[in-house]
Write a structure and sequence with these properties.
Elements (H helix, E strand, L loop, with lengths): L4 H4 L21 E7 L7 H14 E10 L8 E4 L5 E3 L9 H5 L6 E12 L2 H13 L18 E2 L3 H11 L13 E10 L10 E8 L2 E6 L1 E4 L4 E4 L12 E7 L2 E6 L2 E2 L4 E4 L5 H4 L11 H15 L4 H9 L2 H12 L9
Parallel strand pairs: 1-2, 5-13
Antiparallel strand pairs: 2-7, 3-4, 3-6, 5-7, 8-9, 8-12, 10-11, 11-15, 12-13, 14-15
Helix pairs in contact: 4-5, 7-9, 8-9
């Protein structure tokens, strides 16, 4: 089903035209209903009705795919005609674990989370956060203003874009370990009664081989900067694309495909993929507080300007992220920029 008749011309199987706010199907028409990269695009006025329509049409399962922990304000542009700001892809909300757990009404339980999509680099993550915190817009050739329909998309001055690019490249990659670097999350919901939850999280490594799947216990060993997973009984060789790790916590499985291989039986995982962090991942909680943001800038400036101790001293005298940022702009003679 799609809202566009033009899009449906490319579909060669059964199809229907309709809106997610009013599905043209009887209640319980399908075993499974899937919304693939849809929910982030629904305006607030239609959002609740869309969720009700989804669970009304599904009798057993709902599968939802959304961008994961997206930094919405890092993708804002400004219309060159009406001057309003908007998300270049018209995304209205971001989703973390907390938001996805409470997405559907009572009676629906999330049973599996799969972290998928692109592997974001630390540079990409930091650039998005910097743009969001500083209110810097980006340009896009394909963006269409939702207010006036214009295709005139404007970004901030190149000076500010360049400075962000430089600073983002001078931050330790370890700083990004606590922010999910997978761009998508798929969640399977089942219509079922609440069941007892396991008391202790368990980790297993699974793999596919010769058309069949198998699963083995895995032992996580956490350090300050990473988590190492050991699976001594894992057969060799198995391509990383055929491997995934899964935590089982509270009756929910969290799957991490394609782990980084350190050896035949050892794999590296970022710290965010652990029970302690997974259950607290929320898109409404800023990754950096003002103090953490300032520390990030201190680190970047120490790396970028190792022979300018006076600048570092001035930054440390100014409390918080915004004070540190203003110091950098003043010392470089760039000027000022309005911050959110």
């Amino acid at each position: 089903m799609n809202i566009s008749l033009e899009a449906l011309k490319y579909i060669a199987t059964n199809r229907a035209c309709g809106s997610i706010t009013r599905l043209p199907f009887a209640p319980g028409s399908f075993d499974l209903v899937m919304a693939n990269d849809v929910m982030e695009h629904i305006p607030e006025r239609d959002y609740r009705e869309s969720l009700l329509e989804l669970h009304a049409a599904a009798s057993r399962y709902i599968l939802i795919a959304v961008p994961f922990m997206e930094i919405l304000d890092g993708f804002l542009t400004r219309c060159g005609v009406c001057s309003r700001r908007y998300h270049i892809n018209h995304h209205y909300r971001s989703f973390g674990i907390a938001e996805l757990k409470g997405l559907l009404p009572e009676g629906w339980k999330p049973t599996t989370f799969v972290f998928s999509g692109l592997d974001l680099t630390p540079y990409e993550i930091f650039s998005r956060y910097l743009r969001a915190i500083l209110g810097i817009t980006i340009s896009s050739e394909t963006a269409i203003c939702p207010w006036c329909g214009a295709r005139a998309s404007l970004g901030a001055e190149q000076t500010f874009q360049s400075l962000i690019d430089i600073l983002a490249q001078h931050v330790s990659p370890q700083e990004a370990l606590f922010h999910p670097h997978r761009s998508e999350c798929l969640v399977l919901y089942e219509r079922k009664s609440p069941c007892p939850s396991e008391t202790e999280p368990t980790l297993r490594i699974s793999y596919s081989r010769n058309g069949s799947e198998a699963s083995l216990p895995a032992n996580p060993v956490a350090t300050e900067e990473e988590m190492i997973v050991e699976a001594p009984d894992l057969p060799h060789p198995i391509p990383p694309s055929h491997l995934w790790l899964e935590w089982k916590c509270g009756g929910i499985g969290y799957r991490y495909p394609r782990p980084i291989s350190l050896s035949n039986h050892k794999f590296q995982l970022p710290l965010w993929f652990s029970p302690h962090y997974l259950e607290h991942l929320s898109a409404s909680r800023a990754f950096w507080s003002d103090r953490e943001g300032a520390q990030f800038l201190f680190q970047a400036v120490r790396s970028l300007f190792p022979n300018v101790p006076q600048m570092q001293k001035e930054i440390e005298l100014r409390k918080g992220f915004r004070g540190a940022w203003r110091t950098i702009l003043e010392r470089l003679g760039i000027g000022k920029i309005g911050m959110k």
